[in-house]
Amino acid sequence: MKIFTQRLEQVSEHTPFQIVELNFDTRQKSRFRATLNHGEDIGVDLPRTGILRSGSFIATAQADIIRVDAKAEQLMQVRAENPFELLKAAYHLGNRHVPLMLTPDALYFEPDHVLAEMVLGLGLEVCEVEHPFEPESGAYAQHSHDHRLSPIKALHHVHT
């Protein structure tokens, strides 16, 4: 079994890699086992330097590379008739310190009937959906850039 031990800051657009889809809970761990999309079992033993964001790259000491993608999971989706109502829901959910994914049209959080009832009480729509979960990292996070928005770069750099 291959063991992936290094985070990569960037990879060349021509660098071959495999893909693994992981839920948010697994992407928060530094040590776990997983199965690549093509069926190969792998191990991961990374330094404790934060969560794996969707689009992150990790490697073995032999330079095997995988890209980590956020796996679709059961979430609560919040929608509103206008941006202010969505902002108000984000404020109230944020006050409860729950992992929250923000998009221009919706908010997403892990299933919690108490929070869902609170949001419904604010007059917003809440439903369960299957969606990749990439919550905000927080204002004090030490993550220097966001993999969701950055394209694969031309340089290859191992981040330790």
UniProtKB/TrEMBL annotation:
- MF terms (GO), sorted A to Z: nickel cation binding; unfolded protein binding
Which InterPro entries did the record assign?
UreE, UreE_C_dom, UreE_N, UreE_N_sf
| Localization annotation | Cytoplasm
One CC-aspect GO term: cytoplasm
For this entry, list what GO says about its biological process: protein folding; protein-containing complex assembly; urea metabolic process
Source superkingdom: Bacteria
Where does the record place the UreE urease accessory N-terminal domain?
A: 1-66
Primary residence: cytoplasm
Keywords attached to this Swiss-Prot or TrEMBL record, sorted alphabetically, are: Chaperone, Cytoplasm, Nickel
Role noted for this protein? Involved in urease metallocenter assembly. Binds nickel. Probably functions as a nickel donor during metallocenter assembly.
Similarity annotation: Belongs to the UreE family.
Q: Cite the HAMAP family for this sequence.
A: UreE (MF_00822)
- Please report the name of this protein according to its UniProt entry: Urease accessory protein UreE
Q: What is the native source organism of this protein? A: Acinetobacter gerneri DSM 14967 = CIP 107464 = MTCC 9824
Instruction: Give the gene symbol.
Output: ureE
